Amino acid sequence: MADLNKLMGELSELSVLEAAELVKMLEEKWGVSAAAPVAVAAVAGGAAPAVEEEEEKTEFDVIIKDAGPKKIEVIKAIRQLTSLGLKEAKELAETSGAKVMEAVGKEAANDAKGKLEAAGAVVELA
Question: Which of the four, 31, 98, 119, 125, has the lowest number of CB atoms within 10 Å?
């Protein structure tokens, strides 16, 4: 069996043109498409592998961590942001980790976070 470390070292020393030529040779010998060998040649050629970009999150949950010292102001802000009654808003303000808003857009989530923080709450977007 071939020494894989030695083979890897030799492949990493190839220039881009040499790697492209190797791709053509492998394509002809094994009858494979160019897509797979090009990716292998690029990695073996010393190029950094492509990093998958993380999809940008479009929906957020607004979670209240702590109502802070101005609980009444936080309750008013919760009622302003939602259609909850006084009792429900009070329960949300008093429950650490409660979701004030679920699956809202980035702009709405940031707006809600700003209003709740201005009222004195500690808020997290998830």
Answer: 31
Instruction: Give residue-wise pLDDT tens across range 45-97.
Output: 554 545 555 567 788 889 999 888 899 999 999 999 888 899 999 998 888 88
How deeply is 58 buried, as exposed, middle or buried, from its count of CB atoms within 10 A (0-12, 13-18, 19+)?
Answer: exposed
Q: What CA–CA distance (Å, rounded) separates 99 from 82?
A: 11
The Cα–Cα gap between 24 and 96 comes to 61
Task: Report how far residue 8's alpha carbon sits from residue 41's, in angstroms, rounded to the nearest whole number.
Answer: 11
CA distance 43 to 69: 56
Q: 44 with 19: CB under 8 angstroms?
A: yes
Quick one: 123 exposed, middle or buried, by C-beta within 10 A (0-12, 13-18, 19+)?
A: buried
For the segment(s) 60-125, the CATH number from 3.40.640.10, 3.40.50.20, 3.40.50.300, 3.30.1390.10 is 3.30.1390.10
